Predict the 3D structure of the following.
Amino acid sequence: MAVLRLVLGRFRSHAATRLEVDARPVVLFGPNGAGKTNLLEAISQLVPGRGLRGAPPEEMARAPGAEGWKIAALVQGAGAGATARHEVETGWRPGAGRWTVLDGKSASRTALAAELRILWLTPAMDRLFTEGAEGRRRFLDRAALGLFPGHAEAAARYERAMRERNRLLREGVADPRWHEALERAMAEAGAALIRGREAAVARLAEAQPAGGPFPRAALRLVAGEGGAEARDAPALAAALAAGRARDLAAGRTLIGPHRDDLAVAMAETGMPAARCSTGEQKALLISLVLANARAIRADAGAAPVLLLDEVAAHLDAGRRAALYDEILALGAQAWMTGTGPELFAGLGARAQGFAVSRGEDGASRLAPAPLAAEGGA
């Protein structure tokens, strides 16, 4: 899988950017604020969700309130040959919201999820193991989406039903007929969400080789308070009904997979990830993203696109070389950012390099910049 052409219009710092590449890894280097991460964020908008920054669409417009923004891409899906290539356009317009066109027809980004899988790792995720459970749920759901494209729809259905139930709870509506219908919808979608998460945990565990350059992670899906027995649709529906009075008092839903957590530890030592050093936590994150990529390749026959923002800067030379070797062994198109080309020394012709800078008008500019080969200057 690969993004072969990327065209940005009025997207953050990119007034009008066009980039054509092949399926090799792509290196973007330049000073902070040049617009490197904005390119990665644009690619992340091609799949369901809010992208790697989690920002609302109006924040991504270069000129808020004017014309909105647009992303166009030629992508290589999981299949072989021209039939696996797709033209994608997506964007946002004030007053019209988000829109997506796939091969000339209006579509949802979920429709593309089966063809194009994208994983990412950003500096903000360095706090994944030390902050609240919400970030770990998002990480696990992103992993599940890569493996099971239908997971996005289950998550969306659950969120919609829960949002409506929470509105009733806040407004003090106690009519059981309204609640029962929403609780059935929540239970069906919630059970599918749980199954997807549990399957993703199992697949990630299987895809971590022993003795590799990055540590193996031990993973466990932990049910939220009161939710351990409510893991299938009938049990979850019963638990929601039983907790209705408590939820009315709280004004929100207190049980369900939206309260779950992902427990992560070092497989070899059992040390919880939250108590590991910063370097060990980074290595665990990389290990999980690579495991997710291996599992996707095993299922789809091709590795996903990887978006690795400022990852190389936090690794020593040995770990950087090991990461590059893993990416090349996967056959993945990895888009990597860094402040200087020296972080990617040794990749040479195995990757494509671009220098990113800002012009006098403040817009981002890209220029091809070949990378040094092993031992080169």
The chain has nine helices and 14 strands. Residues 1 and 77 are 5 Å apart (CA to CA). The chain has a mean pLDDT of 93. The first strand starts at residue 2 and ends at 11.
